[in-house]
Every structure is written in structure tokens, then in C-alpha cells.
Amino acid sequence: MIDDSHTMQNWFLFHFSSIKIYQEHTLFAAIMGKGIVRKHLLGDWENICEGLPLDIHINRLHIRYEHIFACTNKGLFRFANECWNETELTFSCYQYKDTGAHGMAATSYGLWYKDSGCWKKAAYSHNVVYDFLYFPQYIILALDCGIAVYDRYVSKWAEFQLDTAVTSLAIYEGHVIGTTEHGELLYGDKKGSFEKVRFENMFLFSVIRKNREVFACTDRGLYKLTYIQGRITLFAIKLGFPVTDIDANNDSLYLATLFEGVHKMERPLV
Q1: Dihedral angle over CA of 96, 57, 196, 173, nearest 10
Q2: How many whole angstroms separate alpha carbon 52 and alpha carbon 86?
Q3: What pLDDT sits at residue 270?
Q4: Average pLDDT, stretch 223-252?
Q5: What would you report as the CA-atom Rg of the chain, rounded to the nearest whole angstrom?
Q6: Is 90 exceeded by the pLDDT of residue 154?
Q7: What gap in Å lies between CA 185 and CA 234, rounded to an integer?
Q8: Which of 22-36, 80-94, 175-189 has the lowest average pLDDT?
Q9: SS3 assignment, position 6
Q10: Distance (Å, rounded) from C-alpha 146 to C-alpha 127?
């Protein structure tokens, strides 16, 4: 665990919701209802909330090259010159990604993209989009009512009504997977159907892909997705406390938890 008792004891009182590694030597972490903190490799945690409203909630942090973004209930913020700066996207933002050609954001008013310095509506402006995946052929949206898939080759959307909100997305072994608002694992069969799987006494917060591995953050700990007898299942990595988010480098995993601060562990070999 990276937090020493004399430097992090008070931070145990807070609930960490998101974590990101910046340039291999700095951690950025969001605390539910308390803003954002930062820790350099040899330093202590410090508040970096300049520019953020007091009552802000951080949904996700995102890092792309030198740029750090915070997706919040009050819009998308960018960190520059030791201060968080508002962008033109001022309503609830749940995910941000830089696709190379455009910045794209999942918001309470659908999917938006940035073109020539301006944010524009892309799709599903009457739905909440919680997450999305962007590929050369497909765009996949996690909606408040299911999943939508855009085929860029034929310029058409396909909708999958699931009677539940989908809160995160990833690809594992060619399958679209996700989590629902009820803590279920969502599993695509590659044939146009999705199965919802509930694991006994477990609530899944999100699925997160790191390189070729996909992890599940749950209220029981951190799990890794694996195949057993042709089905996706969960392999325990770190148990004992709720894990809300992770980030990774070549050697280590960094875990944001609800009650145990921030943990560091070696990347599993399984």
C-alpha cells in the first residue's frame, strides 16, 4: 500500500472514486464530494481543487498525453497551470476520451464531440450516456436504457433495450461487456444479444480494460475477467474492501477504494 500511516491516516475518512497515473510518477485521485488530490512519487498527498466548485462530484478522471481531465456533475474540467479550468461542456459529464481526431464526451445529454474548438452534439441527446467505446468501425454507447452501436461503414445505429442503465463498457476476447446500475455483469454473445449475470453477494461498479486485461471493480474487491469452460468468469485479485477504480503501469496496479485509501500492488501474472 502506498499510503504511510503518518501521511495518510486522515485520508482514510474519505471515499476515493477515481485514480489515474500521470507520467509514471504522479497519482491523481478523486474523493467523493471532496475534490481531487495529487501525490508525487516521493511526496505526500495534496489538495488540488483550485478552480473546482465546492459542491462538485467527480465521475471519472482521464489522462491523455500531457492533458488531465475531470468528468464531473458540473461539466468537463481541464487541469493546467495548477488550476482546474472549465471547458465549454458545462453539464454532467461521465466519460471523456481523445480519439485523435476529436475529443468525445459521454454526458447527461448524449454523446458530444469537439470539432474546430467547439463542442457539438453527436448522438442520443435525449439519453444519458455513461460510457462509450470508439473503434474505426464502431461506436458503442452505454445508455440509461441499454446499449447502442453505430456501424460507421453503413452509417446506422442498432439499439439494444435492456431495461436498465449500463454504466461502464469494455471489450474482452471480442465480447462487449459492461456493468449495469444494479451491479450486474453485462455480457454480449457476438450475435446481437446480451446476458445480465448477477454474482451472489457482489455488486460490480465497473469494468476497466488495461492493455489486454479486463478488471472488475466490485464492493468485495478487485477481480480479473477470465475464460473458464467457454464462459467469462471472475478471478479474485484483491479482496476485503470495495474497489471503485484502478489504473496500471507495467509493474503495478493502483486501487481507489471506499474505505482503505489508495492501494498499490504488483500486477498479477494470472
Answers
A1: 30
A2: 8
A3: 58
A4: 90
A5: 18
A6: yes
A7: 10
A8: 22-36
A9: helix
A10: 10
Tens digits of residue pLDDT in 213-228: 999 999 999 999 998 8
- CB of 126 closer than 8 Å to CB of 91: no
Q: Which residues are paired to 128 by β-bridges?
A: none
Nine cell digits for residue 5: 500511516
User: Cα separation of 270 and 268, whole Å?
Assistant: 6
DSSP, res 12:
G
Sign for the CA dihedral angle at 223, 228, 232, 233 comes to negative
Contact 29, 262 (CB under 8 A): yes
Pair 264, 2: CB distance under 8 Å: yes
The C-alpha cell 476529436 sits at: 102
| Residue 25 per-residue DSSP state | T
Cell of 164: 436498465
Cβ proximity of 153 and 115 under 8 Å: no
pLDDT higher than threshold 90 for residue 254: yes
From the list 123, 119, 41, 55, the residue with the least C-alpha distance to 87 is 119
* Contact of 206 with 168, CB cutoff 8 Å: yes
**pLDDT score, position 13:** 54
Q: Give the pLDDT score at 215.
A: 97
> Cell numbers at residue 204, please?
460490480
- The candidate with the shortest Cα–Cα distance to 222, out of 194, 188, 264, is 264
